[in-house]
Amino acid sequence: MNEKQLIARMVQEINKDVESDVVIMEICGTHTQSIAKYGIWEIISHRIKLVSGPGCPVCVTDKRYIDMAISLSQKEDMIIATFGDLMKVTGTESCLSEEKSKGKDIRIVYSPIQSIELAKEYPNKKVVFLAVGFETTAPLIGKMVMKAKKENINNLFFLTSLKLMKPILKEILKDKNQCIDGIICPGHVAVIKGADYFSFISDDNNIKTVVSGFEPIDIISGIYFIVQQCKGKIHNHDKNLYKRCVKEKGNETACKILEEVFVHEDGNWRGIGIIPDSAMVINKKYEKFDAKKVFSFSDLPKVIEDNCICKDILLGKEIPTSCRFFGNKCTPQHPVGPCMVSSEGTCGIYYRYRKEG
Ligand code: SF4
C-alpha cells in the first residue's frame, strides 16, 4: 500500500461509524496550517471537529512586550532584530512595521544567529534580538546567549517572550466546560522535550493524545488514532507517531541549554492573561544580556486589551468565522487581533483557506 492509499484507507476508517462529535485540538499553528493547506477539513466527517490551540508564538505575544520593543527602537544607536512575523503585531499605540516606516532601525532576521553577526558588524550600536517562541526556538536562542557570553559580545541583548506549552495546556484542561476528546501535540516541541513531555494529557485527564509530524499522513494518522480510540476500536497505542524525529526523552543537548540559560516564571499570554511558570526568562548568570534588566522601560503606554475574541480562538472555544470582524474589518493586510497576523495564526489561516462555519 503506498502513502496515498494508506491515507485514503485511514480516512475511510475515521469517517466510519462516527456516532457523536469528536473534538480534537491541534495545539500548534504549523499543524493548523498543514490541515488547511492539505484540505484535511474537507475530507473528514463533519462530526470530527478540529479546533486550534494556543501554539502560535506571535499570537500569544502580549501587547506590553511589543510596547517594550517599540520603546527600545526609539533609543539612540539601537538596532532591533526580529522575525518578520512580529512586524505587524500591534502594541498599544503602534507596531514595529509602523515604527520602521518612521525610520527606526528594525531589521528582519531569519535566525537568532544573525543577531550575533549584527552585533559584530555594528560594535558602536546596541542590538536587541526579539526572542519570541516556544520550547522549539528557545534552545537556539539560549545557545546565542551562551555564545555572546563566551565571545564577550557586549552590545547584544535579548528581549524575551519565550513560552512553555505544558502550563498553558494544563490551564486549558482545567476548564471543565472545555470538551476536548483528543489532542494532537506539536512534533517540534516534542523533538526538544520528548514525547513523554505530553504524557500528562492522557495520564491525568483521560484525553487521547498523539505526538504528530506535519505531513498529511502524520496528521491523518494522528486523527485516526484519536478517533479510533474514542470509538473503542484501539486501546493503548504508542502516542509517539513522529518517531523519525522524536525520542521519548527529547534532545538532551537542547534541554541542557534551556537549563543553563533560562529559569521559569509567570508568563503573560495575550488575551489570556498570566499563566504560572509558563515563561522562560534569562537567568542571573546571563542577566547582562537580558534587555528587560539592562534597559529602562518607564515610558510605556497603558495597555488597552484587544477588542476581539482572539482569546477564545487561542483556547479552542471559538472558530475565526464566529468573530464579527473576520474578513471585513480584520484581514491579514489590516489585522485587528494577533491571530490574523502570523502565517501560523488561526484567523490568518482561515482567511487564506476560507473555511466557513
Ligand atoms: Fe481577532 Fe481578527 Fe481573529 Fe477576530 S478575526 S478573533 S479580530 S484576529
UniProtKB/TrEMBL annotation:
* Gene3D superfamilies the UniProt entry points to: 6.10.20.100, HypD, alpha/beta domain 2
- A Pfam family: HypD
* Molecular-function GO terms, alphabetical: 4 iron, 4 sulfur cluster binding; carbon monoxide binding; iron ion binding
| Keywords (A to Z) from UniProt | Iron, Metal-binding
- Top-rank taxon, per record: Bacteria
- Report whether Metal-binding shows up as a keyword of the record: yes
Q: What biological-process terms (Gene Ontology) are attached?
A: protein maturation
Q: Which family does it belong to?
A: Belongs to the HypD family.
Q: What is this protein called?
A: Hydrogenase formation protein HypD
